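Archive maintenance. Older records in this collection stored only the sequence; we are now back-filling the structure field for every entry so that each record is complete. The fields below show one back-filled record exactly as it appears after the update. Entries are processed alphabetically, and ABC transporter permease is next in the queue.

ARCHIVE ENTRY
Title: ABC transporter permease
Organism field: Citricoccus alkalitolerans
Length field: 346
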Amino acid sequence: MSVTTAPAPSSGAELGPVPRPEPGPVRRGRPVASIAALIGKKILGALFVIWAAASITFLIQSLLPGDRATLLLNQQTGQVQERSAEELAPINEQFGFDDPLITQYVTFLGGLLRGDLGTSYTLYQPVTTVIGDQIVPTLVLTFTALAVAWALAIVLLLLTARRTPWLSRIFSGLESVAAALPQYWLGIILLVVFSLWLGLFPVVSGSGTAGLVLPALTLGIPLAGFLAQVMRAEFERTLDEPFVLTARARGMSDGGVRLRHVLRHSLLPGLSLTGWAVGAQFSAAVIAENVFARPGLGRVLVTAVNGRDLPVVCGVVMLVALVYVITNLIVDTAYLLVDPRLKETP
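Back-filled structure field:
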């Protein structure tokens, strides 16, 4: 039986076009719809944080033992004594203390939705006025302390990270000690040493520039230790990256490599904590303002808590939550500036 074989193609036969591989997916930035959805989720999360902070503060203040009307009347008269129902009736009617708790809560939330934080029980002023009169010194102290913390952390990293083993170990330990320092104790030590013994700074800080130094250091030193701890591992890891070796091979100095290349890549862990740090510094200003007798929201909040002035307490707490939320939104934007890769979808 004969087998027929197909003729082999001649050497001059034309071959068909070679198929080209399909191009892979192009990495593009996030679409507008995705960005809008992301912003919407963040705004909803921010509203939830503010609502939760206000609700928890309302419940805690409302459920504390003792009669609020009696406390307010005693504060007005300057006499601590039991009060009759007839004496308390006008105050209960004015502030709605006799209403059921759920009614008080709904009224409270309704005022918040209208932008009305209420009237101070003790100062008889709108809460917005009370907060507005004292917010500037607190904001100045908060962001000055934050700047001090970042400056100290960056200087520590640039000068000590991956130098000699003993130097790195010493400063790494000092960072741990600084991060663990109680702010109240540190403030008293700084006040005694630099104000009472050396006389370099005023005992009562007031609102001057010289009076801002010690409170800012009180809040900034522990935060600097914490930031340096968080960024040191990333800083030392980045020193071994290939692009760092390439920069050194091109003749760039060690300081230039650390400042221009390594520092930028090690900022992300610190930036991720900045939103929390601003809220923490804002609330910790209560300690510094009381230790150094500075004006600000700290003293207002302490007075309001002692007097169970619910509108002022809730107003300050919601302001702290608002600062925390806004700062986190700014930090998310800063992420994109520091690391452009985050602009792309995976």
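Update note: The two ends are 62 Å apart (CA to CA). Confidence is low (pLDDT under 50) at residues 1-6, 9-16, 23-27.
Entry marked complete.
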